[in-house]
Amino acid sequence: MRSKKFLKAEQARLVWDAPGLLAGVDEAGRGPLAGPVVAAAVILDDSRPIRGLADSKTLTALQRERLNEQILANALCCSIAHATVEEIDTHNILQATMIAMRRAVEGLRLKPAKVLVDGNRLPMLDVLAEAVIHGDAIVKSISAASIIAKVHRDKLCQQLHDEFPHYGFAGHKGYGTPEHLEALLRHGACIHHRRSFSPVAAALARVSAAGISFNAETIAVQVEVSVTSFVPSMPGFAR
Question: What is the pTM for the complete model shown?
């Protein structure tokens, strides 16, 4: 017969996670044909809850903007980081995403005890971490990270549009829409296009086969862009 002492031990709650701050991490921009991939890390303040947090893809642009302001104002700390187009083309988009996520976590003003990352892969981190499939829909800190990453990248795409308006970056955000593919065929690739992505490579091959030439600015080889080069003008970076 089991002792009461044994029964009590058997029913005791096991706590595997160390107590401390919890950070949520997500990315924006894995699928587009141009621009950096952006990652964000957020540590929310439990005493200042934010209503309406959800997967950024389910929200309107206006909802994301409003929530972005609340997150930057009320979270304990936030960090936004990039992996450049050159890094994407060199390492592949998955590894570049992991690089951006690691940079985002390392950029946090406060060090978390644990990091929850959207998806099924984890970047190399020096803290406890867990991958959460569909985490952007079920974990508030990941939802917050998905929102600020998306808003930040959309602003970068507006900057790309201002620089190269004939590609339509402000509208399609770099994704392979018919408009974007047509612009690639007509104008070639600019310095912000991911040449390792097959639609860009195919468009460049067609252009080359047709013997069409473009100005040096348009077809310039991708140059390295620092992770923070786009960020200082954006509020809330590594606050």
Answer: 0.80
